[in-house]
Design goal:
Length: 101
Amino acid sequence: MILAQVLGTVVSTRKDAGLVGLKLLLVREVDGAFKPAGNYVVAADAVGAGSDELVMVAQGSSARMTEVSREKPVDAVIVGIVDAIEMAGKDVYLKRSGVVS
């Protein structure tokens, strides 16, 4: 899994029938300081994520293991919304206030 930030929504009126009904979001991986890093990825949303939220993204064959994405033609799926991250006993990210460190 990777940590990523939701940047926006992807709308596609013409797509494979397996994607009909899926909410698609544009995400970008973040680094250890929660700054943008890596490529942009379109991910199916399995948890109701929103813009600017920090999320966990599963990719590859693992992306097809959620109830939302099972048997669907997806390579990335949002599997969690991050509420807090603790490192070495210290809160470094809290959803309600952003980056702490």
